[in-house]
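Attaching the record inline, Q. Sequence:
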Amino acid sequence: MSTRLLGSAHRYSDLDALFRSRSTTTKLHLVKTDDVPVGGTLPLARYEAACRAVAACVRFDEAKEIRNKAEAIRVYAKQINNPQLESDAWAIRKRAERRCGELSADLDKAQGARTDKLLATTGKKSKAKALADAGISTSSAHRYEKLARVPEDEWETLIAKGREQIAAGYSHADAIIKAAIKAKSRPPKLPPLIVPGPLAARMKIIHGNCLDMLPTIREPHILISDPPYNQRCRYDNYSDALPPDEYRNMLIKVFGGKACVIILYPEEIINLLGGGALGECQEVVAWVYPSNTGKQHRLVTWWNCKPDLTKLGQPYRNPNDKRIVKLIEEGFEARSYDWWGDIHQVKNVSKDHSHPCPIPVELARRIILTTTNPGDLIADPYCGVFTIPCVAAALGRAAIGIEQSEKYCRIAEARLGTIMEELGLKDEAVYAEAAE
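Structure, as predicted:
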């Protein structure tokens, strides 16, 4: 008498037919049949039918159950030294995990909607709550979603390679897929270096420590920087975990008494730089952004200099006021406020330009336009992947970027060729502004 692997669901019948053995003592209670000789191969039609059964899953828990059963079969096949059955079971397991990833991604679209369409739960729930109720960890869901993002043709190639490895007696099948996903998660290589002449002429890259390099800058300049946060960020070639006193002294040595603009968290500004440590703080703008972390804003602070916020406009906060309606109709807009809440941070998961926390180009643009004029010299002592110097050069300013990471300096050279596109500008418009 046959026993279904996955219960009574009709669509799992093809999967049942796939995993059969002549063994009468298996703990998995597999179906007994003479169709598959021990150590032999399974009919191709049954493997393809099992693939269809996986694809037919419409709920996360259904795909997860197939995944668990297939893994149990794979372990058993390995024990009885049946590489072909093991490779079939492994492939079905990976396909089920990929299907789990597809359905997990669908849960993002069902946030606050009917998650019971994708899980064996009821009512409206968040994705995390729905997964937890189904006994699925968010880490597993995230791992499965990575599989779902692999293009179909590449996925089939990876599955074929994995099956070949197992059938040949090797155990590197999972490693093949992991390596492929890891390679895809790396930031894409920047396009070939195509640097417009005026941009290259306006930006200078200095590889070295800013404490050593800053005294070599003789021309009048202003410092604009997003310095290390001392929050254990994983910068290249720099330890972001200094003792507080050492971190404070470093900032004072670099910025103290100079005209500068610094982007930092409020706690550091208040606790480390308060009391005139750098001179007079003449303006503060809050950069507020939505995030899933406890910290959702940073401060842009002007020391020993002051921005002209009237250079940039923002939409009025009270657009329904009769007087404001008239101003809007006449083409006016409000001066830039001291609260910038429309600039999203660059997410860490994006790995943008291989840097843990690059600032958005729009934030650099606003600071530069409100603080300097075309032709002014801007120096960034902690320039990372050179967002500030590249934006400055694109906006007609001269720029010097100092960075001790050789890796980031190489990125800067290529980034000059993409900064115009990042800013959404055309060369002609920028160069015309620079000439004014």
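The chain has 18 helices and twelve strands. The longest strand covers residues 281-288.

More tomorrow.
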